[in-house]
Amino acid sequence: MNPFLKTYRLALTPLSPIHIGCGEDFEPTNYVIDDGILYGFDPSRAVLSDLQKSKLMDAANRASLQAIQRFFKDNAQNFKAQADVLIPVSSGVAQAYEQRIGRAANIEASGNSVFNQLFIERTSYTGTARLPYMPGSSLKGAIRTAIVDDLNRGQPAQYDERDRRGAVKSDMVERRLLKGDFASSPLRLLKISDLMPANGHEPARRVLYGVNRKKRQVIKDGQELQPKGIAARKECILHGQYRAFVADAVLPQLQAHHTGKDTPAPELRPTDLRRIASQSNTYNQTRLQRELAVLDGRGLVNPAWKQSLEKLLAGDLGAQLRAGDAFLIRLGRYGGAESKTLSGEGVAQIKIMGARVDGKQQSTMEGTTKTVWLAAETESDQKHLLPFGWAVVEIDPQGDLPPLQAWCAAESKGRPDMAGLRQKFEAEKAAAATRRLEIQAETAAREAAKRAEQEATVQRAQALASMSPRGQLTETLRQKCEELDARITGGNFKKQTPDAGKAGLYQEATRLVKTALELNDWSASDKLTLVEMLESWLPKVVGPWDAKEQRKKLKFAALRGTL
Predict the structure, then answer these.
(1) CA dist 522 to 338, 476, 517, 532, 557, Å?
(2) Residue 258 above 60 pLDDT?
(3) Are residues 393 and 11 in contact, defined by beta-carbon separation less than 8 angstroms?
């Protein structure tokens, strides 16, 4: 054991949906939704038939977003087989996909159609396994705010820490409280690894809506005003997953080192993660209670979730928090500006955007936000919403925590059986692989047949060119018979009737026989070649065929010179 390093094992349990973005989106050209499951794929890996390729190329050439979206939707089975990620989606997201994919959202005054983009923001994920994880920097950033808030103890910002409008310059406040910049910050001593899925298991996730709701009801003309924020689709790590993520935290022990300008001030150096846990709990428990009260007062929060969480925090988990063996934290997007600002009158400065006046966007600096972003199953849900980003982190957990375990089991009940879905998917993927091989074989066969036909055409042309003019007439008719025979064999054509009065191969044969017998430039050899060809090919393409009768009608004996 290194005496200068103190290492802790962290186990994180999400208490509400968490979204930590990675700057990537699912788009309708790299995902399809089928039976409530999003299948994410690389479209370049899909194997398409010639007809499908033609349709996609046509849509691309026309630059038709509508046609492109519809193509991926209509050919979902082809693309599903290439999926490297499967994610359940909310009922609202699935319904919106079915209703809006490939359809115009509205028509502009210019007449141009505006299409639904249907982007879905991805959460952070690992490389090849595509498993969600939480960057250690996100956890450390949330801890940092709590530590700075504890140091400030609600004191107002100093005069030189405000701009001309009176707004607080938070970076200057932090620099004063931490007694230095990044190089000398005590937070630099805390090292936290990325929070990875425990035991390599796939954490449960779901595509949910992020919806904006007003904290206080506003009525105008008898109608409740709704925020202007557009509902966003987010891939979220779901709550109710017992110790789903793990990480290591390391604290160097530098108490004896007091020199060096880049060394954090001795009195600020963190020496025990449990002290930091206490700071985080003081900061976050107050904010959680306040948020739940606001949401409950507006009737927005899911009441069953709220009651069960409050009961959990009041019991054994609360005792863990008070002892510093665990800490409450808020991570990711939509955690609210209040979870990233300092406490105290006039300290928290949140920019609130207002209306445009004379073409300029107006804004004010206030202590709290006017709206809150919440996780929802549908865009219109007003009563069963959850806040984003809450989690509990246990420090060096010893044994299980049954109340938390039971709470997770209850919250996760009814979720899709991803193991069963993956088993079914792998079977479909295997079938698709077989089909892909069949398509490749069919394509190869067609190409081989095409090459053979091209070669045969060349050979026929060469053979024809080497013949006498009479021989060319015989060969030309033979080739026509051969082509019709191929079509008859393929089931696309029937045999022609042996009627010299009807246009067709029989009539051509009759005329050619007459020419051969009447003209003196047909040699005995040319006539014999003609009659042997007719005896061989006409029965294949003309029917019914009476050999005795047709020999007489076509004067085969005369051609042979046996009369």
Answers:
(1) 105, 16, 8, 15, 15
(2) no
(3) yes
